[in-house]
Amino acid sequence: MVQATPLLLVLFLALGAHGLQATQQCELTGHWQNDLGSNMTIYEVKENGDFDGKYLTAVSASPSEIVDSPLLGSQHLPYLSQPTFGFTVHWNFTDTITVFTGQCFVDEYGKEVLKTMWLLRSHSEDLGNDWKAT
Questions:
Q1: Is the dihedral of CA 99, 107, 68, 36 positive or negative?
Q2: What is the share, in percent, of the chain residues with pLDDT greater than 90?
Q3: How far apart are CA 132 and CA 103, in angstroms?
Q4: What angle do CA 120, 48, 91 make, to 5 degrees?
Q5: What is the dihedral sign for C-alpha 35, 115, 40, 123?
Q6: Smallest Cα–Cα separation from 70: which of 43, 103, 36?
Q7: Mean pLDDT over all residues of the chain?
Q8: May I ask which residue range the UniProt record assigns to the signal sequence (predicted)?
Q9: Residue 70, preceding peptide bond in cis (omega within 30° of 0)
Q10: Are 8 and 115 in contact (CB under 8 A)?
Q11: DSSP sequence for 57-117
């Protein structure tokens, strides 16, 4: 996997995704792509703020074939125009889990942008090696 240090990712709304509302509201639902080529799809943000989707990373140190992995998350309520959110990705091809937290923004050009930080946790065989697993 990617080096396990926090990395600021800028996820850009991919072509073909939904347009902005007149109030410049940032919506998480849709397809997103980051600057490294990873793809994320958020299917729907429910009334309680919960959402699910899939993540296909473009970066991995695993020898296994990279496949779509499920994500589960929550957006802060009430629905703000530029909401905070968090989600977890359970990687289907390796023994790691990643948590992301961030905020959705609308930039000066009307483009939706996700700013996130992430933390990746690898499996550790014993407590003595716990220090290098996150």
A1: negative
A2: 57
A3: 28
A4: 25
A5: positive
A6: 43
A7: 83
A8: 1-22
A9: no
A10: yes
A11: -S----SSPP--EEEEEEE-SS--SS-EEEEEEE-TTSSEEEEEEEEEEE-TTS-EEEEEE
What does the block give as tokens for 49? 């703020």
Q: Rounded to two decimals, what is the model's pTM?
A: 0.77
Unique residue bearing structure tokens 């397809």: 31
Of the candidates 122, 73, 62, 134, which has an alpha carbon nearest to the alpha carbon of residue 101? Answer: 73
Q: Which two tokens stand for residue 100?
A: 């992301």
- Looking up tokens 């990643």 gives 98
* Domains of the chain and any CATH numbers: 24-132 (2.40.128.30)
Q: How many CB atoms lie within 10 A of CB 93?
A: 15
The long-range contacts involving 86-92, CB below 8 angstroms and separated by at least 24 positions, are 87/51, 87/53, 89/55, 91/1, 91/57, 92/67, 92/68
35-60 pLDDT, tens digit each: 999 999 999 999 999 999 999 998 88
Q: Which two tokens mark 81? A: 């125009």
Give pLDDT, residue 42.
97
